[in-house]
């Protein structure tokens, strides 16, 4: 038996801000059977993750290409791999059987055929929606947890600032920090998102950075006694402002620089005198550095969710047609929480 697979490709390398026209939907016919004795596996994709870091993969040159196996260059016209949840259609691998739910690296498409070595494991939903295993139980959640606790190293009572605080990672960082006993302020790009942070997620305070003409002064208002930990998702001028308001021995967990990915904004130029005399640590990190923490992270997060101590925000659209708009929207603040595309019913 054969099925038609529709999938997303990028037409050419993109050096600036992505647009929907940079992508196209292609179709191919794939067999739903595998050769006996092979390691091949055929999946029907159910949910796929939409992440900002993919912009660096579709550039012709990026530091990510040679430093992370998860962020190597994408060749125009080829399938784009991404984290997601799928169901096994056929398998030559004895570890997987037809009908199994799996989670791992799949593709921006309706089906995928995996050969050779692949990153995949059976999925136990644990009573949670499958989408949670693309967001809070996947790289977004682990990034928030590891970045805060292993890189930021907060102490109870310290003051934590989170940029892009309504995004896939930021909204979790703030909640983890609150549960730990920190004072937490986040920034976001609309008054609705600010209200969400304060009223639903329990941030101590939040502000709309688009309404601030002087970010350094804004942070001084919200942190009159200084910032101890800054979880940086954006880079740019926000990083400069945070450095100016950091306390002595402050820590910055450099998770992402979405303000700089497309090359259209100002590059961050933090005051090095501040960094030296305040003895500030700026630590860039990748989630893959902390996979050893996954069991502890998962146990804590499951408990928080089941007791209602934290909540997760998901922004889910449907169909392969929505992948490109969903991705482009990330760079305009269109999403609230984790952006996911549902490709098929469970």
UniProtKB/TrEMBL annotation:
Which superkingdom is the protein from? Eukaryota
> What residue stretches are annotated with the Enoyl reductase (ER) domain?
19-341
Protein species of origin: Morus notabilis
TM helices/strands, residue ranges:
130-149
Write down what this protein is called: NADP-dependent alkenal double bond reductase P1
PANTHER family from the UniProt entry: OS06G0602900 PROTEIN, PROSTAGLANDIN REDUCTASE
UniProt keyword Ribonucleoprotein present = no
Q: Does the keyword Transferase apply?
A: no
Which Pfam family, giving just one, matches this sequence? ADH_zinc_N
Print the keywords alphabetically: Membrane, Oxidoreductase, Transmembrane, Transmembrane helix
Q: Which GO terms describe its molecular function?
A: oxidoreductase activity, acting on the CH-CH group of donors, NAD or NADP as acceptor
């Amino acid at each position: 038996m054969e099925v038609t697979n529709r999938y997303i490709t990028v037409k050419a390398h993109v050096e600036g801000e992505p647009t929907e026209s940079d992508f196209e939907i292609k179709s191919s016919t794939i067999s739903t059977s595998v050769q006996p004795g092979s390691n091949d596996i055929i999946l029907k994709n159910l949910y796929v993750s939409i992440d900002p870091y993919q912009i660096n993969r579709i550039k012709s040159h990026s530091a990510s290409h040679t430093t992370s196996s998860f962020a190597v260059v994408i060749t125009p016209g080829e399938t784009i791999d991404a984290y997601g949840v799928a169901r096994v259609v056929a398998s030559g691998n004895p570890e997987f059987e037809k009908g199994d739910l799996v989670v791992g690296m799949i593709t921006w498409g309706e089906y995928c055929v995996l050969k050779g070595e692949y990153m995949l494991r059976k999925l136990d939903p644990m009573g949670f929606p499958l989408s949670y295993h693309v967001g809070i139980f996947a790289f977004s959640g682990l990034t928030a947890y590891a970045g805060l606790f292993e890189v930021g190293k907060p102490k109870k009572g310290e003051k934590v600032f989170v940029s892009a605080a309504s995004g896939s990672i930021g909204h979790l960082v703030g909640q983890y920090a609150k549960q730990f006993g920190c004072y937490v302020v986040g920034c976001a790009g609309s008054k609705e998102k600010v209200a969400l942070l304060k009223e639903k997620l329990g941030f101590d305070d939040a502000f709309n950075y688009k309404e601030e003409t002087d970010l350094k002064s804004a942070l001084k208002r919200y942190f009159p006694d200084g910032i101890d930990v800054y979880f940086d998702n954006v880079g740019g001028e926000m990083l400069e402002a945070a450095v100016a308001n950091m306390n002595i021995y402050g820590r910055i967990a450099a998770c992402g620089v979405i303000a700089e990915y497309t090359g259209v904004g100002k590059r961050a130029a933090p005051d090095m005198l501040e960094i030296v005399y305040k003895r500030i640590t700026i630590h860039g990190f990748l989630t893959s550095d902390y996979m050893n923490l996954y069991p502890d992270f998962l146990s804590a997060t499951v408990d928080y969710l089941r007791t209602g101590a934290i909540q997760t925000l998901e922004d889910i659209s449907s169909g392969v047609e929505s992948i490109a708009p969903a991705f482009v929207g990330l760079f305009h603040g269109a999403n609230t929480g984790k952006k996911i595309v549902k490709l098929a019913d469970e």
